[in-house]
Amino acid sequence: MIKFDNVTKTYENNGAAATYALNCVSLEVQKGEFVFVVGRSGAGKSTLSKLMIGEIKPTSGNLYVNGTCVNALKRRQIPYFRRTVGMVFQDFRLLENKTVFENVAFAMDIIGATRKQIRRKVPEVLSRVGLANKSKRYPHQLSGGEQQRVAIARALVNNPGLIIADEPTGNLDVQMSQEIINMLDEINRGGTTVLVVTHDLDMVNQMKKRVIEIEDGSIVRDEERSGNFESSFL
């Protein structure tokens, strides 16, 4: 499902020595896993996410997602590849001038789905995330938790094999955070691979899933079903 094979990503530093965002990272995530990625700001977590959706390319090494070598993709191929990956962001990234229905439908529209397919699929996904009765509302009429549910629905609507959630609870209160993580857990139990980037160690310990910790661009810990995970990054 996901394989980093000695992946390094560096950034030039105005003529000085290059900065390592990731340094010789090797890891595998199997189909159907639920994995947390943790680490302090600047550790390399966002770089990891951006590489997996083809937003940036590694400096060296190979990265495979859903059987595709992402770093070998041409620019025109990336939109097609992203159909297999659903991305959920901390800041929701909803279109403010579109309704809930239209925000989710947009993800189908850009891959060429028909009106009939959209009319059938969008209500189904909104019902799955508990927003069937709010399809005509606009983002500003929703709570933060509801906006994140819309973002999850948008990530789900094209039936991706993998969902990457980058700090999905960072702007939410404790109750809403729990609801969002429970929803992602339910999605995972349905067979979708879920990777969550987070700073919330209480939630990590509660969920007892696999945890990968990144520090200074390297993996420093990889624990299965951790329920007592401690770290110095907080």
SSE topology sketch:
Elements lengths: L1 E12 L2 E14 L4 E5 L6 H8 L7 E6 L2 E2 L8 H4 L3 E5 L10 H10 L5 H14 L15 H13 L5 E5 L7 H16 L3 E5 L3 H7 L2 E6 L2 E6 L11
Parallel strand pairs: 3-8, 3-9, 6-7, 7-8
Antiparallel strand pairs: 1-2, 1-4, 4-5, 9-10
Helix pairs in contact: 3-4, 3-5, 4-5, 5-6
How would you describe this structure to a colleague?
The chain has helices spanning 45-52, 78-81, 100-109, 115-128, 144-156, 174-189, 201-207; strands at 2-13, 16-29, 34-38, 60-65, 68-69, 85-89, 162-166, 193-197, 210-215, 218-223. It is of the alpha/beta class. The protein has one domain: P-loop containing nucleotide triphosphate hydrolases (Rossmann fold, 3-Layer(aba) Sandwich). The model has no long low-confidence stretch (mean pLDDT 91).
